[in-house]
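Q: Structure tokens for this one, please.
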Amino acid sequence: MERDAKKFYVTTAIAYVNAAPHIGFALELIQGDALARYHRLRGDDTFFLTGTDEHGVKIYEVAKDIGVPTRELVDMNAEKFENLCDALNLSNDDFIRTSSERHKNGAKKIWNKLCEKGDIYKDVYKGNYCVGCEAFILDKDLDEEGNCPNHGRKPELLEEENYFFRLSKYSDQIKKAIESDELLILPASRKKEMLNLIGDEGLKDVSFSRPKNLLPWGIDVPGDDSQVMYVWCDALSNYITALDYENEGKLFEKFWPCDAHVIGKDILRFHAGIWIGMLLSMEVSLPKSIYVHGFITSEGQKMSKSLGNVVDPFEYVEKYGVEALRYYLLREIPTMDDGDFGWKRFVSLYNSELANSFGNLVNRVLMMTERYCGGKVPQKGENEEVFPVVEKIMDDYQKAFEVFDLKRACECIVELTNFGNKYIDEKKPWVVAKDEGDVGEILYNLLEILRVLTVLFVPILPNIAFRISEGLGVGKNELKFEKKLGVMKEGASIKSVGVLFPRIEE
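A: Here is the predicted structure, written as tokens:
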């Protein structure tokens, strides 16, 4: 568990700003934040990026439909996504907007790099275009009714002259990188899915621009202002334009390659295919891993405005607090699979695991320390029955983060909480104190369990973790994930932290 600190660069996908944020993107943001906070606990020099995708047909059409300038629409919605980062208590180091000049300049540099390699050419393209996906779709990928499987409607048949990227040129290299885990894709089922997509025929060249008369809102193609860049060179490039790839500056030199792209399953082919081909053409190092999460349903159904079951992350934060929402999304939703957001389960999980189990443990331990030890950390005693259990749970927690299983990491917290409550029930400190036994040894072990729980909670519920650490007299800078137990200082002052999780009434 002890190791030298290193750098860690994690990104989310960038959110499309044709509409307000939804709970699915909130999940992705919180997953990225948990990874970033965990690596900071490990002492890693960490950089966490998120942002917004602000070009494309959908945005242009929505702005036209509601009668506002496109720039006004993207500014309005981008602000909502930045506000969501604040509402979810994210620790992101940067927020990239693809309409910003720094991004446009970086994207143009990438385009020119691809041209220098001879990997951009002009041709006529005819195909099925889905406005919802902002992508052309092959016939074989349509459903039985000829609809886009993601949006349930027929794509438009378009024929236009575009620039193309020679993705086929890099298909074998991409396949080899995925097979060897040079580019690690988690879960393994998504790796298999991507390899099946590449298949024996390999990846095909992709349309890389759109005529400006059809899409006036975009980044001009260098040297040809009759075309604008298509989503691939525009949106995907944010992961390096945010690091000042334009000037190949210090951030790019320090943090690239990316350690983990966190994305949804619907955009895997773009990240593990087109993005990797672009980097190979540019002769830029490949990202180390792509972590793929699933979708969220609402009460077992796909979310839709017509059904009235859309979960608004802002509403849940305002009503129940950010910690309740973060916990549900990380604890209840399978990290790499689909999951459901249900009101009754939300309340039940919060009340049983946070308010009752964990909150009760914290208050019992601090109250007994005040009552039996004068509010001071007692002397350390024997701990053979406690520390080995704690170490095993810490090992499991670490392994969970290493394989992008944040749900399992939360389960480790539950296990340690349950162990602490069971230890109290078995040792009965109030009886030991009444009989004038060594209650200090029991309470020291319990305080140490609380300290470790506080550390484990930092990536999951940072606000709560910092409140408890203050009660324990442990500074924020002292919260580190390391296999070192028995560090609570004898004689240090302990104080109450109040009610951590007020019960939610059904």
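A few notes: The domain at 352-478 is CATH 1.10.730.10 (Isoleucyl-tRNA Synthetase; Domain 1). The first strand starts at residue 7 and ends at 12.
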